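[#protein-structures] MJ: dropping NAD(P)H-quinone oxidoreductase subunit 1, chloroplastic here for a structure pass
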Amino acid sequence: MIIDTSQVQDITSFSRLEFLKEVYGILWVLVPILTTVLGITIGVLVIVWLEREISAGIQQRIGPEYAGPLGVLQALADGTKLLLKENLLPSRGDTRLFSIGPSIAVISILLSYSVIPFGYRLVLADLHIGVFLWIAISSVAPIGLLMSGYGSNNKYSFLGGLRAAAQSISYEIPLTLCVLSISLLSNSSSTVDIVESQSKYGFWGWNLWRQPIGFVIFLISSLAECERLPFDLPEAEEELVAGYQTEYSGIKFGLFYVASYLNLLVSSLFVTVLYLGGWDISIPYIFSYDLFEINKAYEVFGMTISIFITLAKTYLFLFISIATRWTLPRLRIDQLLNLGWKFLLPISLGNLLLTTSFQLFSL
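AK: finished. structure tokens for NAD(P)H-quinone oxidoreductase subunit 1, chloroplastic:
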């Protein structure tokens, strides 16, 4: 049997080419995901530094100043400290639930970033049910908190987990009704379509002006979902020591700490996307990317501008959330539930009915 060496070389080169194509395809999938994760990590570090600086300014004190220039490395130093701390487990608790709880809280929030458009064509997954996917995923996070509270075998932790579940249910319904009103106005549940529907008329086309009641309800409900003051009942230190975090230390406590800021950032991004026009630069009747399609060399510049605009609007809402923390006192648990069920739910339902009526009459 005579073997043609040229054919063997062709087969080998072909198999190598196919292998390189597979590697290139995997890298093409992983690069956007890793870039998003890196950006989110930097964003969380910036939020932690901003909160400490703004809080110090409101309370007339100095704030972080030693770790790096202007204290910008303070959050990184705190994260390193938590990584090096001992990881403690409760001797009589359920260690599996205790260990899984923080991971569920972080992963469920991270998945929400997949449907957020940071700019034109800058989204990991442009799904037709984008906003409702976020609501469905975000409702999983309180299950992790409840598991953590139950697995700690601690009455303070368990009460904190129960409060987290009750608070999430109470405020997720008004939040969903507000999102449904936005979907009716935009005739789509895709986050990209919602932004594009607002960009047709510039600044006055934002849903902030068409849905002012929904915007206020969404703002309050998102703060309650993030468990920020005045809605931080699940971890009220005067009542529950630290709530569901009481028995945690080391990296697991750090996961809860990161999850709270991740949730705050994703809520701020959705406020930007749903009500503040997303990446739109607010020039009436001009779609911003028409300016940059004249020359393909300007596409990178256009994407940079869109990301900057999205983050500028997002951090404006973050400033409001941080200032609210040091302005309003904490509510009682009965006041928190009354606000959600007796006020926000009927108002958001009425807002949805009004929006539906206007949409039907405009057909």
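MJ: nice. The two ends are 78 Å apart (CA to CA).
AK: one more thing. Confidence is low (pLDDT under 50) at residues 284-294.
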